[in-house]
Design brief:
Blueprint lengths: L4 H4 L2 H29 L4 E2 H8 L4 H10 L5 E6 L5 E6 L5
Antiparallel strand pairs: 1-3, 2-3
Helix pairs in contact: 2-4
Length: 94
């Protein structure tokens, strides 16, 4: 059998569209996970976000939340390894 590109038509376009849709859903889900976590009064670092939720780009999700008006705060903390990292939190209103 030989390669017949005409049989595949828009295959690459459809794959790209599916990837974009999955990424949009993933970002939305990740933002929801981060917001829910922080609204519960807990803090979150990039390593914790990766461990708990599989989120690789926490700072990007935080930026998106802030742009949407969510009052996410941050502070620098020293972790067990001695490195300083950003820790995100929200002031919980009661």
């Amino acid at each position: 059998m030989t390669w017949q590109p005409e049989l595949w038509g828009n295959y690459s376009t459809n794959v790209a569209e599916a990837d974009e849709a999955e990424e949009r859903h993933s970002k939305h889900t990740q933002r929801w996970l981060v917001q829910t976590h922080l609204e519960s009064g807990r803090t979150l670092t990039a390593l914790e976000a990766l461990d708990k939720y599989g989120i690789n780009r926490l700072a990007a999700r935080i930026n998106e939340l802030r742009n949407a008006g969510v009052p996410v705060q941050s502070r620098m903390v020293t972790v067990a390894s001695g490195k300083r990292v950003a820790e995100y939190y929200m002031e919980v209103r009661r």
